[in-house]
Amino acid sequence: METEKIRVMWFVPPLLALVASQDPQAIAVHADRNRSSDEQFDALVAGGVDAVVTSMDNVIGWNRRAGPRDFRVVAQIERTTPLTVVARPPLRNVQDLRGANLLVDAPDNGFVIALRAMLCDAGVASDAVRLTPAGGVKERFDALMAGQGDATLLGPPFDSMAQAAGLACIASVQDMYADFPGQGVVVRQGAANAKVAAWLRALERARQRVSESAELARQAVLAAGFPGGVAEAMIAQNPGSLRPTTEGVALLIAHRRSLGLVGADNDYWTIVDDSMVEQSMGGQK
């Protein structure tokens, strides 16, 4: 049994972490729910956490900030992150967002890049919308429900909660970008240590268990207090591998290139370090 404890931050507990927590061989996890990606960045820089679960695009943005610039994605823990543009009436499509106040986590990194790409592809100029930082997914949901913005990106369970409250789901990132990747485990290269490697081994065992038993995974999600519908959505995104997909990373870079943003000169290996995933898989390809 692993005796050390890894410190992590995430917006919502991911499926593989919930399943891994039931594994008596898994390293103990001290997890905090963060309110924004900036909070994750600050914690990693200060050494307050060993890893964060976040949008893989954040690595591109964080490595352009003043600071250590040694962030890497070491694993991808879901096939894709389901993201829906949810809007208040009377907005009904992406074109209607022209002139809207959009609630985001950060304006220049993370899932907002996919939203900005959607707007660009729909012919909505970047200066035709207002991007208002409002925090992580729960914080954006709360702000949208309070009428502090016109639309935002939400994932399960907040997208269905907003729809049940009368808001409209007007577009899906996955419908527009089939290769959009799931969240990654992000570390600083200098801090990519034995605790992170041990956690990735536990997540790989969890990934295999989910593949073998959807019911086991469902019970882990229900035990964490999530409804059955969220469990099914999470299970559907169980990845075929913890290795970040080349197609997904390429899409993130392509979005930045199409928007004229910094980071378009990145490639897979300036964003990803898959060495610990290789170890967790026993070198399997």
Automatic annotation (TrEMBL):
Keyword presence, Signal: yes
Major site of localization recorded for this protein: periplasm
Keywords of this entry: Signal
Segments traversing the membrane: none
Subcellular localization: Periplasm
Protein name, UniProt field: ABC transporter substrate-binding protein
Protein family membership: Belongs to the bacterial solute-binding protein SsuA/TauA family.
A single cellular component GO annotation: periplasmic space
Species: Paraburkholderia terrae
Aminoacyl-tRNA synthetase found in the keyword field: no
